[in-house]
Amino acid sequence: MWNTVVLSIGIVLVILRVFKILRLRSQLPPGPSGLPILGNLFQIPTSRPWLTFDKWTKHYGPIFYLNIAGQNTVVLGTPKAAADLLDRRANIYSDRPDYVVPNLITGGMHWAWTQADDLWKRQRRGAHEALSVQTAKEYFPYQETESVIMLDQMLTDPEHFFDHFQRASTSLTLSIIYGWPPLLDSAHPNVLQINQMNRQILVAAAPSSFWVEFEYFKWMKHLPRWMCAWRRNAEKAFGYHSDVLEGMSADVQKRIDAGDESKSVVGKLLWDSKNLFEAAWNSASIYSAGSETTASQLAWFMQAMVLYPDAQRIAQEELDRVIGPDRLPTFDDYEHLPYIRATVKEILRWRGVAPLGLPHRLSRDDYYEGYLLPKDTICFVNIWSLHHDKEVYGDDAEHFNPGRFLDANGRLKSSIADTKDEGHHSYGFGKRICVGRHVANNSLFIHIAFLLWAFDITAQVDEYGKHVLPDSSQCTEGLTVRPTVFHCNITTRNMEVAEIVAQAKADRGIGS
């Protein structure tokens, strides 16, 4: 009896939703026609959807509409459309979709996925203060130390360079957030637990993972708990993750109480709020955003060096001129390395690790370019399209060229409009812009400077003497997008590299 009532209510709600969409369709932006009820659900590829969206932008214009199983969705495909809505109208475009299961797994405490409510504002404010452009400078020693360890590991095992990038990214994130000493591997139990949580959230947020995430079936979140295994499992996971995260933050408080003055995000959050639970989950949100993105971005950098040796040569000439062979780069060299800084901007443009970013949700009805955008519309930005716009980046936008960010005198140009002085859009828009972007930029700068100071990165040669080049269009999709596995030659640029790295390890008290 109860199942019949629930099913009947669900069918009625679906029918009402379908009629509402049909009634509004003439007022909505153009877009591909779809199937009854399911709309465009099966027209969106599961792999590299940004390429299909790019084609649709070229056909339908800067904003096009999709009906994804009842969910009104628009894709923004030009810098102007993205900035007009997500930046200049940020007050109504800063919500997230109603992620039911991810928010159960995190108790609504993970600000990357939750709504723009008072808790979200408070957590974002705390994260921003702990990762601001000035505060980010406090983490320079951590970043230089991780770069030293990264070089040391690549000297002994260059083939597994991505593993070394992942270790460095994870270790740095933990040092910044919790004040941990460097990890020489990433197998710490707490690290594995947080990574498991991130994977659970990612799976839960993926299309088709749970019926309750589809607009037609949102009514399922009101079902009794005993009927919903997905709810019980998610709530159990939240309790487990909370215990781990609160324990890690409590350890920081104990060290502070004992007189430890190490800089950490948790320390700053606890000082400001005194709320252990919120500090624990705020820190977990920051970890999720930072633990894998830099590693994936460095993998794309390695591929760019193989494919564009001229860019590598120019960067190394700058390093040789400014640094020389007898010492490692430092952040004191930052202002004197404009080509390295341009390389950071270009790798984030050429192959950013989030081609579609995370979706925004419209909090009330709006109009743009004469089209109605109904309340609760989901907005994606096809960052891939923005970064390959030839009107903005030139006819060579498909290619890796750090020189596009430099003037005739080799100095950085004024930033491209609506990119927040970044030159690209990889860090997002409006009130959802990445709070850790200053730390991320600094990490990429010092890692890239170290890598190009120490190594030549070249294509392998097959048995016929031909270069084996990776395919930059192929990628592995997950929490971030990174290149499919490829191989390259990594050789030291001079005989003193190993000795200088060994001395840098000793100076920092780093063991083997």
Question: Can you walk me through this structure?
Answer:
Helices cover 48% and strands 8% of the residues. The chain has 512 residues and is α+β, with helices and mostly antiparallel strands. The protein has a single domain (120-507), classed as Cytochrome p450, CATH 1.10.630. The strands form five sheets. The chain has a four-stranded mixed sheet. A two-stranded antiparallel ribbon has the order 4-5. A hairpin with a 3-residue loop joins strand 10 (475-477) and strand 11. Helix 5 crosses helix 11 (276-290), helix 7 (161-178) runs antiparallel to helix 11 and helix 10 runs antiparallel to helix 11 (276-290). It is globular and about 70 Å long. The termini are far apart. The model has no long low-confidence stretch (mean pLDDT 92).
